[in-house]
Structure formats: C-alpha cells, structure tokens
Specification:
Layout lengths: L1 H11 L5 H8 L5 E5 L5 H14 L8 E5 L2 H14 L7 E4 H16 L3 E3 L18 H13 L5 H16 L17 H12 L6 E3 L1 H14 L1 H10 L2 E4 L7 H11 L5 E5 L14 H4 L1 H4 L4 E5 L7 H11 L21 E4 L5 H10 L8 E5 L3 H13 L3 E3 L5 H4 L1 H14 L4 H7 L9 H8 L7 H8 L4 H17 L4 H9 L4 H12 L3 H15 L5 H18 L8 E5 H4 L4 E6 L10 H4 L2 H15 L2 E9 L2 E2 L2 E2 L4 H10 L9 H4 L3 E2 L2 E2 L16 E4 L3 E8 L3 E6 L3 E5 H6 L3 E3 L4
Parallel strand pairs: 1-7, 1-8, 2-3, 2-6, 4-5, 6-7, 9-14, 10-12, 10-13, 11-12, 13-14
Antiparallel strand pairs: 15-16, 17-18, 19-20, 19-23, 20-21, 21-22
Amino acid sequence: MRDFFNKMKNDLGIILNDVQKNAVMKTEGPLLLLASPGSGKTTTVIMRIGYLIMEKGIHPSRIKAVTFSKASANDMKERFAKFYPDLPSVDFSTIHSFAFEVVRNHYRNLGIPFTIIEGDHDLDEGSAGNFQYNKKLMLRHLFKSVVGENVTEDQMEELTTYISYIKNKMIPIERWSEVSCDVPKAEEIFKHYEELKRSDSHHVLLDFDDMLTIGNDVLEKNEQVLRHYQNRYDYFLTDESQDTSLVQHSIIEKMVSTHRNLCVVADDDQSIYSWRGAEPSYLLKFKEKYSDASILFMEQNYRSSEDIVNVANSFIKRNKNRYEKNMFTQNPSQQPIEVKQLVNFKEQSKYLIRELNEVVDLKEIAILYRNNSSSIGLMNDLERAGIPFYMKDADNRFFSHWVVQDILNFMRMAFTDKRPDILEKIHLKFNGYISKQQMQALKQLNNNDSVFDNLLKHVKLQEYQVKLLKASKETFKEMKEMKPLQAIRVIRDRLGYDKAIEKISKSLGFRMDYLVGILNTLEEIATDLESLEDFAKRLKHLEFVLKTAKKKKGHDAITLSTFHSAKGLEFERVYMIDVVDGIIPSKEDRTDHQMLEEAARLFYVGMTRAKKQLTLVTYPYRDGKKVEESVFVTDVKNILDPTRMTKSEPIKKNVKKINGVPFNPNSIKKKEELQVGLSVTHRVFGTGEITEVSEEFISLKFQSKEKKLLISACLEMGLLEPLVHT
C-alpha cells in the first residue's frame, strides 16, 4: 500500500490527503464518496482504479467506470492512459452507451432491426434504416395534428424535456398527467409518439431515453442477460452520480447486486439537473439502500482561494436537504468576492468590456449566466469591441425564434406590402385584427397590389378595421426610412405587437418575460445601426459568429457559458452576470422549496468555478423596470459582512422570510384547509381554483395555465391564500 502511494508520488508527483487515500483503499462493498468542488475527485478516482489493478491484482477488464457525459468518460480515459501508460484500459463509458449495448444485443438476438431517431450516430452502428425517421420531425407532425398549430422552438424544448423526464423518473402511464407541462396536450402527444414508434412490430424506433428504459427492462426480465453482464464486471464505479436519474440508478443497482462493489462519486450540493430527471435524493437515501455502506467526505478544495471557499461553504448551508459538509482550503486569501452594483442593465456589457480590456490572459476569464438569452446581447457588444470569446454551449435557436422572425417579417413588410405570404405570418400579431378567414380571402387575389388596399377594397371587413388598416399601411410605409431601433419600438407599441404576444402567451402558456427579453435583446442589437438592411445583416453576422464561437476552445478568448454548462470547469476569474431576482432564482423557483434549493446549488456551482477572483454583477433597473438583486446576492453580502443585517431598515428587518420569500400571515397553513373547489390566490400565478388534492400534490387551475404543486412547499412557504368573496 505504502509502495503504491510512494510510486505515484515519485512517478506522477501526486500526493493524496488522508480522505483521498481512504477512498482509494476502500475497494470492497458500497462506498459513497462525496466530493466537494475542486477536491481532486477525478485524480482520486483514477488512483483508485490504479490501486485495484496494481495492488489488488484486478484485471482492467473486470472494472467498469460509468459517468454522466461522453466528455467526462473521455476525460477519465485520457487521464487513466496518462497515469498508467503501460496498463490496458479500463471500460470507461456513459450510462447511455452501456444501456445501448444491452438494447442492441437484445434486438439482435430477437432478429428485430431498429433505428435511432435522434442525435449521435456513433451509437447507431449495426442499426437498421437510413435515418429517415427523426424524433423532432415526428413530434412536430404530432403536435400539428393534435393541437392544430405549428410547434414553436420553446414548446419543442419543453415537450422533449417532459418526455425525457417521465422516462428517466420511470413514471407509469397512468401518472403522466401528474407531471406539469405548459405545452398544450403534451400527454396526448406523448402517447401518440410512443404508439408511432411501436407501430411496426418488425422494426423498432428508439430515442436516447429508450436505451435506458428498455435496457433496464431487459435486465429486469431476462435473467440470462443480467447474469451475463453481472459476471463481466467485479467492480463498478459511477461518477457525477448527483446527475444520475432513477432509471440509471436502477440499471446500476442490478449490475452490482451480486458483488456489491460499488463506488458512487457525487456531490449533492452540485445536483442541478432535476428538470431532466436527476435524482439527488438517491444520495441522501444511500444508507437505506446499502446499510453497510461507507460514506467519505472529500471536503478540501484545491481550486479556489480562501475568500471564495469560505463564502461558498457558508452560502450552500442555506439548503436543508443535503449532507452536512464543511468545504475548506489551505490556499491563501487572494481577493474578497466583489458584488458589483451597476446603475442599470445596460451598463453591464460596458462594465465587462472595460474590465476585459485590462486582461492579458483572456482564456482564464469566464462570464457565466443562468439563461442562454443573456449571451446574445453580450456577444453583440463583445464582438463590436473586438474581444474574442468561446461559447461553451452556443444556442442558435435565438435567431430562428418566432419572435425574431416576426420582427424581420414586419420589417420586410416595410419594403413591400404586396406580399400576402409575409402578411400571413404576422396578421394575427398587430392591431389590424385580420382574421384567418379574411387572410384566406386576401390570398385568392393575385393582382400584385398592396395587401392593405386589397383588404380595404375586396375583403369584407369589420367597421373598426378600416381605420386601423389605413393607419397600419402608413406606419409600414414610414418604417422603411426609420432606424431599426425606432422601427422595433413602433412595431411593439404603435402596431401593437407587445399586446398581441401577451395575448398569445396567456392562451398558449408562454413566459411573457422571456419573449419581452428577446425583444429587448433585439433593441440592443439595433442600437446605433442606421437601416433595416443593416439590422438584418447584423443578425445574420451574429448567427455566424455564434456558430464559429464554438470552435474557439483553447484559443486566447474568454469563455461564455451558462451555470449548468460550466460545471467541471475552472478559471482564474469569474463574472456571474444578471444575478437579479426573477432570473436566479426565477419566479418558478420561488414557488417550490425543492426548486429554490436547486437554484441555490446552481448559484453555488457558478461561485466555485473561480480560482482567485469572483464578481457578482447586479443592477436595480432593467428595461425601464425596477428589479431586485438576487436573494442569493443578499446572502453573499450578509456572509461577507454579518453586521450589515443589523444595519437594515427596521421595516425590512421585520419582514419574515422563508428561503428569501416574504411570508404571508394570511396563507393556508394546514393541509386540511386545501379543499377541491376552493378559490385561492397564488403569489406568482394569481387567482385560481383547487381541482385536485392528493397525498403530496395539489392541482390548481389558473386563468392562463394549470399547475401541479408540492403541498409541503405551499404550506411551508405560505404560497396560497384563500380568496374571500365579498
């Protein structure tokens, strides 16, 4: 044992602390290794595998290492080869890849061909078909046939997340209705989707989540297959297990049920993927599943300065559903965490550019944000300032979003009002109130006249429409000579686009604040541009810049990333931007205790990316509206200066809060008070009626949507107040 650690020290310069050594040597039976950020997790895991081979005499082929992402699996494989160049490789893979092997062999044995209907063709080796089937195209078709409209990109994202969530949570079909989804008729579309995939008994269609559910089902029902895989490996290791879903845990449990040599590496404080089915509670109940399990805490942070570690450690303790840990470091103090309060949102990019102009090594800088939408305006300003950037998770959907396309179509109408095909795309979104029937009548005319003249002369209109359409014609004519910023504001205000999308949002369940954010970003891009043509060209250029930004990894460029995608990365200096209430935490986060804790974990992940300097950027005004700093920023301020809490104004100090949410003394406090038919007021969703009460959940029907909420969170946080009729 001593020889092994001495050899690693001499050969690789690696010195492990006592907890890391214990993790390496605890090879038999179940082990939960809770690894704080920057605690040398990957090094410890690779050393543990080396110890199994070199000291315990285990052949590498008998060891299986499973991680959450392909990038992590490749990283571990490369690290192992670097540490032990003379040893055969261990079997490193993602859980999806392992499950796919089970599924592929299963269908081969049955003689049934299959086709993967999405994504990565690396997994498709041996599958049948020519990829004529596509998951998103199938869902688009089903949405159109069930709902009667074209699905938007936002709806598509939520629909695929909904489907993946149900499969990863192993929720039976009779309980699908319990899962909240803002997409119209999502449950019906999902059922049709599953039926369509299984419609041909001689040819199976599979999506990525099917690999997990079918793989788990095969291992559950086929004893011979299960024994085959159980006999292949004697030691199982899972990394990033806080991101693992219920069905993934189920597969792993089956694999280790005979030898029980399972090492689970995780950090419950970095579990940030519950929305796609991750099951962090599994870690908290690990001892219930494995009563003889050892639990080790790797709490020493080797990455960050003492300033960052101490504040981050105190911050995450606001969460209650976690293992009690005390992250610490022996790194010296560098610079206190800075909270930068700007005058307003528009100053954010200017401030960042000023800061970045002073930087020598750009690749050691990261700008992190909650939502991808934050990156578009920032990218525009950085590109104009000539500051190179790498975008970790570039998302081109902004430029194809229907709001962006609407604005471009309004501008196209300014250049030619003779095209009914353009008008058809926006006729329901401005105050001409052109109905679908009127639009159909207009399309029958092929005289190459103005669409407004044709409507006024040849189509039956309501009396009030005549004046509106005449005014609209003049407005579009004036827009041609406007600067793009003025044109967008005319579209939003004079033509009534903002009011139109507000109505659409209420009927279809879209987030109005998100759509307004897109419009505000377009205004930012339009600033200082001279013509509508310049604006269209600028959007095209930025779309190209976004695509190429993905290829600048490793270049002398700053990194732009969401908090989610930044996990596992580290930088000398980190700026966390847009840290205001409504973004982190979001309004939705505040409605549920578990969601609020996950938002805090996400904030914690962002904080712990920084090695030496961390700046939190906030502001009191955005788009002309007052916004509050994030409650998480307030927490950080209180940790940095505990005396400031006693300096608060009395009126603020006396407001009782639970997890940063003002407590309502008139709220419902007992489950017995929750009765079907009761009218209530919810802090975020407004007035609604209780439609169902189960053991854990309550269903409510609001004006714009239906919601399923956790009863314990509603009671604990005082979210519901009975509506008193007078």
